[in-house]
Amino acid sequence: MNLILLHRDELDGHRICFDDRRAQHLHRVLRVEPGASVRVGVIGGCAGIARVVAISEASTPLKVELKLDEDFAIDELAPRPSIDLIVALPRPKALRRLLRAVSSFGVGRVHLVNAWRVDKSYWQSEKLAPDNLRQMLIEGCEQGRQTWLPVIETHRLLMPFLGGLGGEERRVICDPSAEVHLEDAIEDSTRIVAALGPEGGWIDSEISAFSAADFRPARLLDAVLSSEVAAAALLGQLSLIRRLGGRRALS
User: Hey, what's the torsion of the CAs at 206, 207, 213, 214, to 10 degrees?
Assistant: First the structure.
């Protein structure tokens, strides 16, 4: 946990007191004492430093009280990340790993969609319950020091979803057989929507539907990757492409 995430409605001015897993982490893992400084962030807002005011070790459950720095902008909103993902629903065991990975990088929205090679039983998993999805995202944000909690949407019908997409973003669909590499399929300054297929890949009719919705096929690597590994590879490559694009603009 590299960032203690705070819910806006928990704040009492610049103070907050909690007795959940965050308190246990501060006490047992970070071993903080009163007076110590910790990195915190408000979900959907800014990040900064808070000071440990008190640790009530005698209480059950253990309670921790923090005081935010006076210059902490409580009402400030975090900018929405410029990358959205479309992901064919993976196996339930892989879903948590995938969502933790993408939220640690920072994405604006994740569309979980159906596909021919998505097993119907995946849609019955309890991991798709809103509270479970939210917890997966929070864990990823805590790891990556992100305060933007991605919005999750589920779509059981792929074709109507693609037909309803709007916006002016650059759209790419990851396909290991594509002739064009990712860096040649995007512009580093644009908002991006990228689609990742199921294990086994998209079928031809699905790729055609994406193409009709202005998605350009792009190859990450020659290797065929699992969903969660592909998501991390995609976001890592996009980050590098944008960083190198900015350096080229300055040279």
Answer: 170
